[in-house]
Amino acid sequence: MDGTVLVADDDRTIRTVLTQALTRAGCKVHATSSLTTLMRWVAEGKGDVVISDVMMPDGNGLEMLPRIAQDRPGLPVIVISAQNTIMTAIQAAEAEAYDYLPKPFDLPDLMKRTARALESRRHVPQASRSDDLTDTPDDLPLVGKTAAMQALYRLVARVMNTDLSVLICGESGTGKSLIARAVHDFSDRRTLPFVTVAAADLQELEGPMRVLARVKGGTLLIDEIANLDDEMQARLVRMMDAPGDHVPRFMATSQSDLAVAMEEGRVRPDLYYRLCGATLTVPALRERVDDIALLTEHFLSREERDGAPKRWLSREAEELFRAYSWPGNVRQLENAVRRLGLTSRSDEISRTEVETVLGNQPEMGPVLRGGSDVEKLSASVARHLRRYFDLHDNMLPPPGLYSRILREIEAPLIEIALDATGGNQAKCADLLGINRNTLRKKITDLDISVTRRRKLM
Fold first, then answer.
1. pLDDT in tens, 17-63
2. Where are the alpha helices (DSSP H) in 264-350?
3. pTM (2 decimals)?
4. Could you report the per-residue pLDDT of 232-289, keeping only the tens digit for each?
5. Neighbouring C-beta atoms of residue 314, cutoff 10 Å
6. Is the dihedral of CA 83, 85, 91, 97 positive or negative?
7. What secondary structure, in 3-state letters, does 72-134 show?
């Protein structure tokens, strides 16, 4: 890399690490813990790229972006932040940041993005700045520090001001409707109506016309598109083809994989291709376990604002929350936390109280797609692999992907098979259809414990 990078972060360790890494890569680096110093450097014409934290001792890094754009048009700014909420990602996009990475960030990834910014030497506007962001309530549970949620936030920020139709997929309770609402509320259409359409709105022939009259060019969300019968889907196709003078933004939610539903004849191909302009996949809660504590704190804080006493989970209770499968996803977590907040006998919520609340709730069953059919394993693997590639934005994952993926599939397969056979390696090898010596080698190579015990959830 060739160029000068300005680094602003109040964490000395981060400044040191970035300075060393960028210097080794061939860059000149100026690092500071002050936004005032950063802005002085920018005004003096220093730097080809800026890497800035958001929360600084003397101000907010996002609030500096308009000034940087005014003083140095085209200067790329990469925002890094520990404030890992959808608001931060959207504000970074609204403020026209070149890129956004949550903390803790992956250093090689940041280096690649910095190299790309240095090569471009120009700023591509992504969205007009919103004057209403500071007045937006922050009580939506669209928070998460996991890679899956951060990737989702970046996609939301990219699509919100386009006219592309948006398909939002995910299991029940993951927050699909909240994502749709966030896309609308931070878009250029936020002052126009947001209308949710269900089957009842499309039963009559004139239903689509009445819907268009209500939405008035705003956002039209079609709830659970795969649950509509063929005639209703046909009416939607005709409505999308002739929306009138005020064309709305079309969005749809689905618990099903619509591509699979289309192949099975449950979704019309002409409707599918009209809706899949952009696809946002909302991860299940079991796929973002590290966000459970963050969400729990969020829900408890909200109850506290509403007058409930301050509560928190004990360490044992938090471990049980992490171990539980949450088949109802974030919605189930919210209801459980609300109940615990009301019924807990002390400020610290105990493991016993969590066991009582979760004891009457279902454990994880098969993941259903389309309401009835169990998702094929290959489809599930493909879905996770697509998400893994999405996490790397427009870059390829690190080399060695084939071996890494095989290892991640092989290890749990052998562990589960060992559990099922009570640790008997001969039976396990027979179950897997491999030689016993091969099984022993894989147990060693994959560092699998041969002392098996069932996990109590």
1. 899 889 988 899 999 999 989 998 998 888 999 999 988 888 888 88
2. 269-275, 292-305, 315-323, 329-343
3. 0.55
4. 999 999 989 988 888 999 999 998 888 888 888 889 999 999 988 889 999 999 989 9
5. 16
6. positive
7. CCCCCEEEEECCCEHHHHHHHHHCCCCEEEECCCCHHHHHHHHHHHHHHCCCCCCCCCCCCHH
